[in-house]
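Appendix C reproduces, verbatim, an entry submitted by the partner laboratory led by Prof. M.T., so that reviewers can inspect both the input and the predicted structure.
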Amino acid sequence: MNPRRFQEPPITLGLPLPPVDPPADCQECAQRAAARDEAKNAGDLTRAIDMTVLIKRHHPQAPA
């Protein structure tokens, strides 16, 4: 058996869920949304997702 060959193809992960919109009256989340947009434009999806998570944590009652 050749250890470099796999019996199953690699998994393919889907794209992250769409970002949530922060509440209009929250300056902190507006800054995070701006940082998320900058990160996404720079190709840093990890930071973009992190900003979305922080927005969701700051407003857990907001619809996802």
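The mean pLDDT is 84. Additional entries are available on request from the coordinating office.
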